[in-house]
């Protein structure tokens, strides 16, 4: 089962290894799951760390070095789908586009624009829902 983990969950997992986002990440890193991250998520994580947590930048780079995940490219605007119009925040739409293009089964996020979108495929869930329901 392919699982994409959104930026906010990755940041929370790295910042608090005792929290629910970390537990969800750890679960998604084990079979039968496979973590898939798009290049946009990786870039966003780096930007947030550089802006908000500059002293922790080495931590994120260590995470990207040892963490096991597949990296996929974020498809361009020419690959837009009708489904992504269900996402209110246009900045989040490329992430859904990447999830759809890479055939992700589950998207773990804390972003209400995703959670309230009504998108059914991939399944969009919180970290807590992933831990309890999958």
Describe the structure using short key phrases.
single chain; 134 residues; alpha/beta; Rossmann fold; 5-stranded parallel sheet; 5 strands; globular
Explain what the structure shows.
By secondary structure, the chain is of the alpha/beta class. It has a single domain (2-133), classed as Rossmann fold, CATH 3.40.50.1010. It is built from seven helices and five strands. Strand 4 (106-108), helix 6 (112-115) and strand 5 (123-125) form a beta-alpha-beta unit. It is globular and about 40 Å long. It starts with a strand and ends with a helix. The model has no long low-confidence stretch (mean pLDDT 93).
Gist of the model:
With 134 residues, the chain is of the alpha/beta class.
Please render the helix and strand layout as text.
Layout: E1 2-5, H1 7-15, H2 20-28, E2 34-38, H3 39-52, H4 57-66, E3 70-72, H5 93-101, E4 106-108, H6 112-115, E5 123-125, H7 127-133
Parallel strand pairs: 1-2, 1-4, 2-3, 4-5
Query: Nearest-angstrom radius of gyration?
Result: 14 Å
Q: Compute the number of helices.
A: 7
Strand order, sheet with most strands: 3-2-1-4-5
Succession of helices and strands: EHHEHHEHEHEH
Category by helix and strand content? alpha/beta
Number-wise, the strands total 5
Strand content: 5-15%
Give the number of domains: 1
Distance between the termini: 10 Å
Estimated helix fraction = 40-55%
Low-pLDDT regions: none
Second-tier CATH architecture = 3-Layer(aba) Sandwich
Shape: globular
Largest sheet, in brief, is: 5 strands, parallel
Subunit organisation of the chains: single chain
CATH class, named: Alpha Beta
CATH topology: Rossmann fold
The CATH superfamily bears the name: 5'-nuclease
Task: Give the rounded overall mean pLDDT.
Answer: 93
